[in-house]
Amino acid sequence: MRTLAQTAFSMLDLVPVRMGGTVAQALHNALDLAQHVERLGFTRYWLAEHHNMDGIASSATAVLIGHVAGGTSRIRVGSGGIMLPNHAPLVVAEAFGTLATLYPDRIDLGLGRAPGTDPHTMRALRRDRPETADDFPRQVLELQALLAPPVPGQRLIAMPGAGTEVPIWLLGSSLFSAQLAGQMGLPYAFASHFAPRFLMDAIRMYRAQFRPSAVLSKPYVAMGVPVIAAPDDAEARYLATTTYQRILALVRGERLAQRPPVPSMDGLWNEQERAAVEAFLGVAVVGGPDTVRQGLEHLLDATQVDEFIFVSDLYDHAHRLRSLEIVNGVK
Question: Is the pTM of this model over 0.90?
């Protein structure tokens, strides 16, 4: 059985913008957070692509990856993920090929098949391009070919990009990407930080379908984990109300800017909304050091994943840094 000490710890950042704050502050905090988790020994720091969301500043994902990689020295930096249907594979190959050339052996390319936004914004991103999520397997193969060493007669070359062989991950919240990642022999990350329902089924399918490849000899699974850690359980529960309010706003279609914590969520949500938020955060770990350790050990016993990718959205940046320091201390 795997132990926490044997499990990689990593970070997923949506670059949250808090109510009354600025995008500039959020971007500054993102780099500071990446430097912090690098000092803690985290394996990777990923940024997620989202568009047209007022509380999330990670839309220009490749640009931010370059900014963070330039401000750190060891930690792997990448996308969790690039929503491939929004982009031509050649453009992704050139962007990540450039990043991999600037920061060798430090760039990850996590790919998702959903648009990561609303239909109106999706049309604005894609214009007249007909690609849909159903084209995802073909797009992944095309991207792999563009990042591989060129072959004689190849007419389309990603420059930079060709020969960089940037590590590709498949991301997902359903069984589709789990099956595809297994069949392609790629590492797989499940988005249990917001959609935990199919976590166990997806892990089982990925491992059952896995075929060794040139990049991976055995399955490698990461899972997203929302985590709010504080010196004691009571403070952690209080700080977690920032996350609860944000998910509640998402459920209601309201602004996603981070709200300060509140003493109680009573009166802010109804029972149906509370159930929706709790389902969204089904694998969340909230508490003091002992509670966090027990929660992570429980998840690890159930899944035997190779890596936890933490999401820790707190209103106060200093509390966010402290939260991840506490999490790291439970190893």
Answer: yes
